[in-house]
Amino acid sequence: MNALFGILDMLLSVAFFIMIVHIVFSWLITFQVLNMRQPLVAQIWEGLSRLLEPIYQPIRRWLPNTGGLDLAPLVAFLIIIALRDFILPDLYRALVV
Predict the structure, then answer these.
(1) How far out from the chain centre does Cα 75 lie?
(2) Is the dihedral of CA 86, 90, 91, 96 positive or negative?
(3) Contacts of 84 (CB under 8 A, 6+ apart)
(4) What is the pLDDT of residue 55?
(5) Is 29 exposed, middle or buried (0-12, 13-18, 19+ CB in 10 A)?
(6) What is the CA radius of gyration of the chain?
(7) Which distant-in-sequence residues (6+ apart) come within 8 Å of 28 by Cβ?
């Protein structure tokens, strides 16, 4: 049981890190620090977007349309933090005891 919760915690931490990288990357692209015409930058951006789109898409359908402001990463952050820091440890303690 401990191994299962360790794996879940690790997966949530990896998803959290990938989301941070994706958000910082998007800022660098928006402020033209990175150029999307460079093949490496475009490949990294495409890879990160493909990884995170299955997480963001259901959240975007649930959220109201806010125009150019995408709140899906913020909601996904809150969900991951809640799962990793509050729900998963409490669930583990409840099942182990």
Answers:
(1) 9
(2) positive
(3) 9, 12, 13, 16
(4) 94
(5) middle
(6) 16
(7) 34
Average pLDDT of span 18-23: 95
What burial letters (b/e) apply to 31-63, b meaning 16+ CB within 10 Å? eeebeeeeeeeeeebeebeeebeebbeebeeee
* CA pair distance 25, 61, nearest whole angstrom: 24
Amino acid identity, position 77 = F
SS3 70: coil
Q: Tens of pLDDT along 39-97?
A: 999 999 999 999 999 999 999 999 998 888 889 999 999 999 999 999 999 999 999 87
